[in-house]
Amino acid sequence: MKRRTLDQIFSVGGLLLAGLLLVVGLVLNNQASFANTYVTDQLTAQNITFTPADKLKDEEKQQACLLTYAGQKLTTGAQAECYANSYIGLHLKDINEGKTYSQTSTESRAKATQAAEAMKAKPDDQASKDLDKEAKALAGKVDTLFKGETLRGLLLTSYGFSIFGERAQQTAMVLFAAAAVLLLATIAGFVHAFGKHGGDVVK
After folding, report:
1. Which end of the chain is least crowded, N or C, by CB within 10 Å?
2. Where are the domains of the chain?
3. Which pTM does this prediction carry?
4. Angle value at C-alpha 176, between 171 and 181, nearest 5 degrees
């Protein structure tokens, strides 16, 4: 087979592969752009602002990212992760001795049943009234934990979505670079194919 023919085969193959990589890269770049825009739009709509540095409590100041983003609007995935874990997560631990919504909900239902039975048996007894008060307070904690964990979950979902966008963007850049290298190699292959040695026979 002539070297020219072999060069042409490899060059055409390289050109096709470069085109494929370019197309995939463009698709990933488009998806990355969509992810970033979507995350920013959704987070901006929440209208969350980080507490200014001078108003942070001592325990909050120990969270590095809360100091970094102090006073800023929450618009990025990284900020969402910070707010979810370092702010909401921090305060959720204080609501019921670090217990989760699920644990507190179970505890609340048991306490409510106990209080209902006590109030039914001795409605005027102070112990029954205290038990009923405790049950209502615990129910309030359940509600707070539910709201807090829900918002935290939504923010972390946005963060995860932004990470997919970043990975897509990074992959797109790698594919663009690979496509460029292949294109240069393809051009070199065509130049060689039609050069003075292009007609040599490959043995």
Report:
1. C
2. 3-193
3. 0.76
4. 125
